[in-house]
Write a structure and sequence with these properties.
α1 runs antiparallel to α9. The N and C termini lie far apart (about 50 Å). It is built from 18 helices and 28 strands. Helix content is about 35%, strand content about 25%. β14, α12 and β15 form a beta-alpha-beta unit. It has 2 domains: about 325 residues, Rossmann fold; about 100 residues, GMP Synthetase, Chain A, domain 3. The longest helix has 18 residues. By secondary structure, the protein is of the alpha/beta class. A 7-stranded mixed β-sheet has the order 2-1-13-12-14-15-16, with helices on both faces.
Length: about 575
């Protein structure tokens, strides 16, 4: 008999009543002790049990220590959704390091900045994914690293560890599985005993998010934030023992990592994944492994719907979906329910700064709620704070002009505070100070209305950031890149609506006087210096006099967006 949502919630409450916040590796080890033979990671290459992951992550942790990794050193991860990402995360936590998961779709200059800004001592990377060859990229940035010499570009970096699915070896690097097999002398349990108890408020990850400036910020994420967010998701969504969850979204995102990997680990569940999303293969995996739950962004949901209509699969096991990242039309919500046979559908709102999906709708909510709201704060469980009505985060709405906190039903900037909220950004004191108001509430940059029911409606953004799928994009980053083109005088980038991606980029280009430039030149240059998703879909060449300005000479970007909406039928994609 399949339990109802309320029954599953009650069972989870009972089974978790003696739990307390713990480090990510401790959570995994406790689960592995209870369910050693449960399948943990299912991917095309192989199936891993909890016991097998424990053995390899223990060995990798010991090998990292033998390699010279010190407590609280930062280790960058450039890995798509392979089991090796999970092994690396667990091993880094076991060895008391700090993981720096990076977006693997970035380009040379982006990686250069992030590896340096994070002061990473080691990199664990795939050798090649899609058209990106990470070995060539790193060799181009710092060839001396591959000659066992100190890097001038990366002064903190000591060694590169490479996972090659095809078993290739690279001079000057350490092979991932050779490293695991080399571990012999370190007893990781004794090592942790010698270091003493880990404080759950210690930083476990530095996770990068785009800001309103051109430079991403490394959010300080603690073990406590991750644990509380994951338990809130388990409570809200009624996670049952052995839950099978398909996670096609990137593990480096807090959404996939916390609401997916960590929450599933809490119940001894099974993670089914793909290194590159393919809807046909995804439906095959759902059918083959009797998947119960899917975590995705709307674009993936739409592709699953279209594929299921064309080539129906037996996906009767599928019952739940958490779909978030950008706005979804009522039509898409309805089709997710009917075409994919989803009984429990929910959405949410979150930021890396507040440990992923801190707001969620209830899976039992009427579909109209998913269109009107982004959710309410997830339950706090037995570790919720009385200050925040038993939750682990409080919300308020702040008047954008006066700074006063508003009542229910009034629009303002959404601010949040509590154990789910970060203390700031790595090595960015000014940005950290600017992120919080005078009373310590984190400023989200989103305009919202808070309702008496606790539900939140988003109404707009203060920031210029736009979202492509689940990716934040900072216009200034793209503007800075395009302004390097010799024949470009100025660039103004905006986010514009897109039926598939939610939003995409549009670049308004002011050429230098007397210069000519083509869309092809712009997109080629952007593609060589930016991740593919950041390359503007639309390009418009204008004279400076054609742009709308404020009285103090700033371009009114909202008017550029209005122009796009009025003329979008005539605008052709540059890609």
């Amino acid at each position: 008999m399949i339990e109802s949502l309320e029954q599953r919630r009650n069972i989870f409450i009972q089974e978790s009543k003696d739990w307390s916040p713990e480090a990510i590796h401790e959570l995994f080890l406790n689960t592995a002790k209870k369910y050693p033979d449960n399948k943990y990671i299912v991917c095309n290459e192989r199936v891993w049990t909890y016991k097998e992951c424990q053995e390899d992550s223990n060995s990798l942790a010991g090998a990292l220590i033998e390699l010279g990794m010190k407590k609280e050193e930062n280790i960058a991860l450039i890995l798509p959704n392979y089991a090796e990402f999970i092994l690396s995360k667990l091993a880094i936590s076991l060895a008391r390091g700090i993981a720096v998961p990076l977006n693997y779709r970035l380009r040379n200059n982006e990686f250069e900045y992030l590896i340096n800004q994070s002061e990473s001592s080691y990199i664990i990377t795939l050798d090649q994914w899609d058209e990106i060859n990470y070995i060539d990229m790193l060799k181009k940035l710092s060839p001396e690293l591959f000659r066992d010499e100190k890097s001038t570009v990366f002064p903190h970096l000591k060694k590169i560890i490479v996972y090659s699915p095809e078993g290739k070896k690279y001079d000057g690097t350490i092979d991932f599985y050779d490293l695991i097999q080399s571990s012999s002398s370190i007893d990781i349990n004794k090592y942790n005993e010698q270091l003493g108890n880990l404080d759950v408020h210690d930083v476990s990850d530095i996770m990068y998010t785009s800001g309103t400036t051109s430079l991403p910020k490394g959010v300080l994420v603690t073990h406590d934030m991750i644990w509380r967010s994951a338990i809130g998701s388990c409570l809200n969504r009624g996670f049952q023992r052995g839950r099978k969850v398909f996670i096609p979204i990137p593990f480096y995102h807090t959404f996939a990592f916390i609401e997916g990997l960590v929450a599933t680990t809490m119940v001894g569940g099974e993670i089914i994944t793909q290194s590159t999303f393919n809807e046909k293969e995804a439906l095959h995996l759902i059918e083959k492994h009797h998947v119960y739950d899917v975590l995705c962004v709307p674009t993936i949901g739409l592709r699953l719907i279209n594929e299921q209509r064309k080539n129906p699969h037996n996906i009767n096991s599928l019952s739940a979906m958490y779909c978030a990242g950008t706005e979804v039309s009522p039509k898409l919500w309805n089709e997710l329910k009917t075409v994919l046979n989803i009984n429990e559908l929910n959405t949410g709102y979150g930021m890396t700064e507040c440990a992923a999906g801190a707001l969620q709708t209830d899976p039992n909510d009427d579909l109209s709620y998913l269109t009107k709201y982004v959710g309410k704060v997830v339950p706090g469980g037995h570790f919720g704070q009385s200050e925040f009505n038993g939750n682990n985060m409080g919300l308020r709405v702040r008047n954008v002009h006066t700074g006063a906190y508003e009542d229910y039903g009034v629009e303002g900037e959404l601010v949040c505070k509590g154990p789910l909220v970060t203390k700031g950004y790595f090595n960015k004191e000014d940005e950290t100070e600017a992120a919080f108001d005078e009373h310590g509430w984190l400023r989200t940059g989103d305009l919202a209305v808070l309702h008496e029911s606790g539900y939140v409606s988003l109404t707009g953004r203060i920031k210029e950031i736009y979202r492509i799928g689940a990716e934040n994009v900072a216009p200034k980053e793209i503007e800075d890149v395009l302004n390097k083109i010799e024949s470009v005088s100025e660039t103004f980038v905006i986010g514009v609506p897109d039926e598939i991606m939610g939003e995409v980029g549009m670049a308004w280009i002011v050429p230098k006087e007397g210069e000519e430039i083509t869309e092809k030149e712009i997109t080629t240059f952007a593609s060589n210096h930016l991740a593919r998703f950041k390359v503007p879909k639309y390009i418009k060449f204008v004279n400076r006099e054609e742009l709308p300005y404020t009285s103090n000479g700033k371009v009114q970007k909202f008017k550029l967006q209005e122009w796009f909406i009025e003329n979008k039928q005539q605008i052709q994609s540059a890609l």
